[in-house]
Design a protein that fits this description.
Four copies of one chain form a homotetramer. By secondary structure, the first copy, chain A, is mainly alpha-helical. Chain A is built from nine helices and no strands.
Chain lengths: 203, 203, 203, 203
């Protein structure tokens, strides 16, 4: 199977998981409050929507960076991808949890659920890359640049410890952890688009 | 990354956001009324569905017009697109708000929410185009026709003020604003398909 | 814009609308009944799901037959497609209506809603084809076979009257209309796959 | 129609059905319990989500194996695919049933519903392959390797009896059947990725 085939399926899951996030934000029932008041109260939902959407967007960009280095996919690689995409498609659930409970006494459980999902996602992402470049570069394009491959490997290293760290923070402080999830996404976008090399500029 | 890659993801988000709009229209519970009566009462939902679907369709057509002028995408462009698509995927929420509340005392908050979403969408759309043609045409195809590029730039100029204007109207008059959202979409479809040049007629 | 571009978006809408149909079938709450009993009672939902899924599948096949004859798309054609896809994406709503109400006193309103949706879909489908072949074949491939084009035109002629007819039946008899919707789909599948020419067999 | 066309639609349905599975897992309402407690109680939903996601992933991999052997698709093949995809898109419903009811007195009805869906899916999958290779290889690529075609035919043989068997177990024991559905998926992933030939490694 070519990696092009995998991309169609993966891009579908990325796009759908990201778009389903909108179901996080529910049309409020009004009691005695005005709609304006209720919409203002929903702000954790908007933030959760935005953070998860951008996070999925970042992972989508990285997933393509990986596939660009490969010359094909074997079945083991496909199934690692299925497990990885299973995590991506799950993200709308902890996003809703976090939006609903972050400011309540149950916020820490929601933050841990969110953090665990992203930690496991990052683990599968690294597993996918390690498998592809392992065994003497078993799936790497024959003309892959070793310096670039090393750079990619290094750039993926912080993902798991960062999300694991934020998850541990969530055990004690839900709102701090929630801010960290947002900061991680923001730092990534800024560092990779403003300061980063733009090696993928040309087709 | 080629712009082809971005198109797959973007087309996914466009198609899913548009199709999820159908969840705006909910199967009514019947009290003492007949289903025919309840279905007739749902007309704001049908109109909201149609206006948002056509609006997303218009933005989809414009997004392709942009990508056709580009020779590739860098990371900054990708992330502007992620933020832009985050707005597109959000549209089903204010659509449901508007359908539910337009004819109530809370209609103005719903109209403002709808208008703000489209205004921010238009801002990101313009940002995307400005970034692509800025820096001496940093992402433009080398054979891009300057006259056509200028024409595109001019054609995108009214989007933000029009939606911002309709949003301000919504602060005072929900139903007038709702009509404006529909009129903007209708005018665009008519002007671009009946009176417009059809420059994209051939592959 | 090439017709390939349109296909990505259209196939997305077709696939999502068809897959969202599963939300027609809701997990039942059990009162005093067993789940087996409740699942058996849901049979109209299963039938509605199947009929709508196959109907969308048929329209998808026909949409490709159309695009195969075209050399490109202009903006008018694109916007006719947007309106056409707006109807396709709407189908899950009347499907849920029909599944919920077909066997109640309100079944006729549900059948009419379902029939109207498919009638309008068929009208836009014909409009799309008429526009493409009108004006001296304005969008037709230059090597399109006139005999085949005529055959396609003829094969699309019965769609609108058939669905309009079934809708009128629905004004009087919900269940008879529902059976007709299924029979139309079944006859199409049988006639086109078992008895029909298989002209699209080769790439 | 080329098989590439079919792949776009099929990949859409696969990706959407898999991603919609996340709606299986609902944000719990808290009564007197903590969120942590409620999330722990949801474990059947997580397992059901994972088993169904991986199962759909496996069928997706197999579907591509089939299409790789074909030189095109005729209308009969397309409609068999429509029926097959109708089963795939249905999977989220019995998944929710199983997650909700597996540990209750109604678990057996849920397990049977789940098993029947996968059995019928497997039947349509085999029908699709049999039709493609029947009639002297009516849709096979002219250079298809007969040994590989035979290997594929053999590898699809156990699907129907395995799922039918697990369904029959479900008539008596819901939880045992649920474990079997997971084991079938796991065995397939392990056998095909760890022990299996990796014939699709190169594009």
């Amino acid at each position: 199977m070519t990696s092009a085939r995998l991309e169609t399926f993966a891009d579908g899951v990325f796009a759908i998981a990201a778009t389903l996030l909108v179901l996080t934000v529910e049309v409020p029932d009004l009691g005695d409050n005005s709609l304006a008041h209720e919409l203002a109260k929903l702000w954790p939902s908007y933030v959760a929507y935005a953070v998860s959407f951008v996070t999925i967007g970042i992972i989508w960009v990285n997933h393509h960076t990986v596939l660009q280095q490969l010359r094909g996919a074997d079945r083991t690689f496909l199934f690692i991808n299925v497990f990885f995409l299973m995590c991506i498609a799950f993200i709308p659930f902890p996003t809703r949890l976090l939006a609903t409970y972050v400011r309540t006494g149950d916020g820490r459980a929601a933050a841990v659920a969110y953090g665990l999902t992203l930690t496991v996602t990052a683990i599968f992402f690294n597993l996918m890359w390690r498998y592809a470049i392992g065994g003497g570069g078993r799936l790497l394009r024959r003309d892959a640049d070793p310096v670039e491959v090393d750079g990619i490997t290094r750039s993926y290293r912080p993902g798991v410890p960062m999300y694991a760290g934020a998850t541990i923070v969530g055990v004690f402080q839900a709102e701090v952890a929630a801010v960290l999830f947002g900061v991680i996404a923001l730092v990534y976008v800024l560092s990779s688009s403003v300061f980063g090399r733009e090696e993928s500029a040309l087709p």
